[in-house]
Amino acid sequence: MIPAWENGKLKPIEKLEVHKRALRHKAVSVFIISGSETLIQKRALDKYHTPGLWANACCTHPFWNELASDCAKRRIREELGVKTSINFVYCDQIEYKAHVGNGLVEHELVDVFTITIDKKDKIKIIPNSSEVMDTRWVEFKTLQQEIQENSEKFTPWLKIYLTDHIDQILNK
User: Fold this and answer.
1) Which of 58, 71, 79, 108 is catalytic?
2) Average pLDDT, whole number, for the chain?
3) Which of 59, 71, 79, 106 is catalytic?
4) Is residue 108 flagged as an active site residue?
5) Which of 66, 111, 114, 143 has its CA 20 to 30 A from that of 164?
């Protein structure tokens, strides 16, 4: 059950139902940044939408009554095995709506967080194979170019973030 708006009221609704009905709902995204690079993840093939596509380090939905910051810490640990003692910085709130295949829609009000690290080897990544197929570090400029050249390999939200909201993410 995730927080979603139905008839103007925020209430807990089953996640798949939220996506089928294109309801506006709360979400959380985390970018892990080292210098001019960011960590991206390739979503596991058994995800019910956008399987096998590249996304930012972590993108998820909070539980009902869960704080966005707590959700970010929980999911970065669950998806990537990253310890929660790392400093999360709140960036901004972004709203978007995008079709994600199979008649499903993400209409999210997203709290975006960043984790900035000096050196990539200071963060230990242990991907959960049921969530993440692969990870890689990539320069933001290179990632933007890859998205332009091979858009179909990336999640809709990552394309939206890096096209329309990159300054909000980088200028925390």
Assistant:
1) 108
2) 94
3) 59
4) yes
5) 66
